[in-house]
Write a structure and sequence with these properties.
Elements (H helix, E strand, L loop, with lengths): L1 H19 L18 E21 L7 E19 L5 E23 L3 E25 L3 E24 L2 E28 L2 E14 L8 E17 L6
Antiparallel strand pairs: 1-2, 1-8, 2-3, 3-4, 4-5, 5-6, 6-7, 7-8
Length: 245
């Protein structure tokens, strides 16, 4: 897991270096921009999520002395966001909504007594989907750079699959699979910077903080889903046929 995190950090540094150079290749025709009120925005996001104290505490129902905890620190993410402008340039105000999906598998080993030595191997698969909606603000700094931010509520959906193998001495005694789904409300806040590629397309980086709580039936306690997300973004402006709101 640590080596994977190091590779992600190196990849992000390379991406930032690449993005920093994109204004040099931008189209000189800047007659249209992302804050034109006739354009709706569609943004695609790819990155990673960093979680604070995201622990799944597993306790065996058959062997109560056996407990195992899976800790999820980094998870990859992919998502899409859409924005509808309400006010005109140079500063655009509007409503945004989107969805972000993250996933990860973690394996953990624990031991206990029944009496006798019991060892359990647990594989936890965690899937998270959050749906968000809220107001956003977008402003262009000159002809090449766009700054934006948003804030609002989220609805978090989660699914946890855990597979457990029990061993007494050297013999496998049991195999269990448990699946639980949960959802809960939360809140998000995000901000980012993008550089112009063409008249109505942008590329950049963004950050997003979020928080929610889920209650899975196959793990003990409440699972806190808190952290921040770092992402590479690509945004395009979609021309509207009407005058908007």
């Amino acid at each position: 897991m640590k080596s994977l995190c190091k590779k992600q950090i190196i990849l992000w540094l390379l991406l930032v270096i690449f993005i920093a150079g994109t204004p040099l290749f931008a189209d000189d025709d800047t007659s249209q921009n992302a804050n034109d009120d006739s354009y709706s925005l569609v943004q695609v996001m790819l990155g990673a999520a960093r979680y604070a104290n995201l622990n799944l505490n597993y306790q065996s129902t058959e062997y109560p002395t056996v407990e195992a905890t899976s800790t999820f620190t980094w998870m990859p993410l992919i998502g899409v966001e859409g924005g509808i402008p309400i006010l005109k340039k140079p500063v655009s105000l509007g409503i945004e909504g989107g969805a972000l999906f993250s996933w990860m598998t973690d394996s953990v080993r624990a031991a206990g007594t029944v009496p006798g030595q019991v060892t359990v191997h647990v594989d936890n698969q965690l899937y998270l989907l959050d749906l968000s909606i809220g107001p956003y603000v977008s402003a262009e700094m000159g002809k090449r750079i766009r700054l934006y931010g948003g804030l609002g509520p989220i609805l978090m959906f989660g699914q946890n699959n855990n597979q457990s193998n029990y061993y007494v001495s050297t013999s496998q005694t049991d195999y269990q699979t448990n699946t639980s789904s949960a959802f809960g409300p939360g809140i998000y806040g995000r901000a980012g910077i993008e550089f112009r590629l063409k008249n109505s397309s942008w590329m950049g980086i963004g950050a997003r903080a979020f928080g929610s709580k889920l209650n899975f039936s196959n793990v003990s306690g409440t699972t806190n889903i808190n952290g921040f997300q770092l992402m590479l973004t690509y945004t395009v402006g979609v021309k509207s046929d009407d005058d908007g709101f």
